């Protein structure tokens, strides 16, 4: 078929089906080329022919051959011939940088995950002088800062804090978690809640109940679970009491006769 766009393809190029097929056959060594699927207008004197690919394992792929010609020429010239995937082709997923592929829990003992110098989640705790790129000056300032007990080289930025808050609030320790929606009360009134210090203290705390699913994890104050410190069982929910042992006074105990 011929793809008619706003401008019809050049007639000479559109008719160069066999020239395009010959280019693919030369590329493949004489095989893997099926029927002609169509011709597509690319530019005034540029046309692309497509052919079915019969190579095993390449279902949905097609050969694409682009041809062109000079305005005064009467034959097509092959520009390129490539194998391309169609809409039904099985292709590898798009490449994703390793830092974006990592998920919480992926790090194993001994693995290192360096943080970039310009990470927006961190800001310098102190300045390193007028020339921060000078390694000697940086090392000297860090040595002095360490001697004075100024603490960490970098600290959490406002952006980094907000990103963490959004992640925690939307996670399993937030108010929308299924565990929280079925809880009898919220974490803010639980005796096992350890509040955070700083600007996040109004929203988050850490669970300290060893029997709870969230033990040792950050939870929102409006989170909750069934292990709340003030939860009480209704009478019908309490276990049936075990009756006292019965002392049999009518039967002789064989052990006493030994």
CATH topology-level name of the largest domain:
Nuclear Transport Factor 2, Chain: A
> What is the top-level CATH class of the largest domain?
Alpha Beta
Question: Averaged pLDDT, please?
Answer: 84
Which range best describes the helical content: under 10%, 10-25%, 25-40%, 40-55%, 55-70% or over 70%?
10-25%
Number of helices: 6
Biggest sheet: strands, sense, closure? 5 strands, mixed
Look at the helices and sheets and give the structural class: alpha+beta
How many discrete domains? 3
Task: Tell how many strands the DSSP assignment holds.
Answer: 10
Assess the beta-strand content as a share of residues. 15-25%
H/E element string?
EHHEEEEHEHEHHEEE
Distance between the termini: 106 Å
**Rg result:** 37 Å
Which parts are unreliable, with pLDDT below 50 for 5 consecutive residues or more? Answer: none
CATH architecture of the largest domain: Roll
Tertiary shape: elongated
Order of strands, main sheet, comes to 1-2-3-4-5
């Amino acid at each position: 078929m011929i793809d008619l766009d706003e401008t019809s393809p050049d007639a000479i190029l559109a008719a160069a089906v066999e020239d395009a097929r010959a280019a693919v056959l030369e590329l493949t060594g004489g095989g893997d080329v099926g029927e002609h699927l169509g011709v597509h207008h690319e530019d005034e004197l540029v046309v692309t022919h497509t052919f079915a690919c019969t190579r095993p394992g390449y279902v949905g792929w097609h050969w694409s051959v682009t041809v062109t010609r000079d305005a005064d020429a009467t034959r097509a010239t092959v520009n390129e011939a490539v194998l391309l995937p169609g809409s039904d082709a099985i292709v590898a997923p798009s490449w994703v940088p390793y830092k974006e592929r990592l998920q919480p829990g992926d790090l194993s003992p001994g693995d290192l995950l360096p943080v970039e110098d310009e990470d927006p989640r961190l800001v310098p705790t102190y300045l390193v002088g007028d020339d921060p790129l000078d390694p000697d000056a940086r090392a000297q300032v860090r040595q002095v800062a360490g001697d004075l007990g100024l603490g960490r080289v970098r600290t959490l930025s406002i952006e980094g804090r907000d990103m963490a808050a959004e992640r925690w609030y939307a996670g399993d320790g937030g108010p929308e978690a299924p565990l929280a929606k079925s809880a009898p009360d919220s974490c803010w009134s639980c005796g096992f809640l350890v509040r955070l210090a700083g600007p996040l203290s109004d929203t988050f705390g850490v669970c300290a109940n060893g029997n709870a699913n969230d033990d040792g994890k950050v939870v929102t104050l409006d989170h909750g679970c069934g292990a709340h410190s003030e939860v009480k069982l209704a009478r019908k929910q309490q276990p049936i009491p075990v009756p006292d042992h019965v002392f049999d006074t009518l039967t002789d105990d064989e052990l006493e006769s030994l």
